[in-house]
Amino acid sequence: MLEVLRSVGGFVVAIGVLVAFHEFGHYWVARRCGVRVLRFSIGFGKPLWRHRARDGVEWVISAIPLGGYVKMLDEREQAVAPGDRPLAFNNATVWRRMAIVSAGPLFNFALAVLLYWAVFVIGVQGIKPILSEPPAGTVAAEAHLQAQEQVVAVAGEPVHTWAELRTVLIENALDRADLDITVERPDGQLRDTVLDLSAVRVDPEYLFDDLGMIPYQPPLPPVLEQVLPGEPAAEAGFEPGDTLLRHDGVEIESWQQWARWLQAHPGEAVKVDVLRDGRELSLTVIIGRVGEGADSHGRFGAAVANPGDLWQDLRAVNRYGAFEALPKAAIETWRIASMTLKMLWRMVTGDVSVKNVSGPIQIAQVAGYSAQVGLVSFLSFMAVVSISLGVLNLLPVPVLDGGHLLYYAVEALKGSPVSERAQEAGQRLGLTLLALLMSVAFYNDIVRLLN
Fold first, then answer.
1. Which one, of 340, 393, 373, 368, lies nearest residue 167 by Cα?
2. Mean model confidence pLDDT for the chain
3. What pTM, to 2 d.p., does this model score?
């Protein structure tokens, strides 16, 4: 219940701020273009709170927090007194209407820059991009990357954490271009190599399997701290405190080594030598199976202690000064926006699965989780969603801001408005596309919950 409340709370706060900024963009530019604003609403449906300001604008918070709107004086929607006609939106010049409509998404991008600026000034904590041994046949293996090498630069730009590296890799994989990277060896020597991204699957679900770039983990001693009741380890007689020595005669050097092996051998019976109370024992365990077919993997049902000091040397903080952070924030906003557009196009071409589309349920879960992790995580989450809202609203789809901009661009070129018949057909098409998108998003959310 607490997790649900945290998710809902984080979602309401995030969406409230993002929608308010978006709608304030429309409102602010409309006022400066001489258009009268009648209502500024956060949310849809029944008003929960309202206030009418001295200038006549009605400020409203409504019951359904999934958007908002700015209602302007418009002769197409209501009767307008002759003296107020110059203040109506439909009578503004086409360039002013374009400015008003585009202001909402542009304010979302501006908010993302401010959020990223705060994130970079506070400092982004993460894990250094140090590599594990890449699996054979992967891009990393073909580039001769080795265990405990640290990626320090990609295409000449420094990277400090795994989060930065993942973003850059996804961005470049969408272009399928060769990628120059610089790595630092454990002895401090630098070397350059090239990642061949021409054949990788660009879907994030599979990309990193093809790349083979796996975060390095300090080797954990294979000493069992917990054995779960009813699981294969418990059924085979393993106990807390056992030290795993060998499986079928192969030395077990770390918990990670054992975990990788057992995940690849579901359903198999294996003899494991353990050290218990100063003496060796041999136990036979039938590895459990999770999943079906090619997606199945083995399960042991035990855990080891994870001492935090092993990770101390892997932690990194990426922080900038107040002035240096601003251009970095602008660059990051542009990078995420362009990557979002590329990802959408790859969905259209079928290179990226629509399973990557998230709806309000998933967004709420991520909002709650990021809020729990800390301020920087929550601000970063809000920046990404703000960019997504800006990009989505600029798509040339009728009923979205981008669709209106398309109409106005046609009007500017031909000197007269798009016909009402064409606008109505566009509205129906836009609503159908949005309904389809929301259906996919809700379906994905429900599938994630069930899994």
1. 340
2. 85
3. 0.80
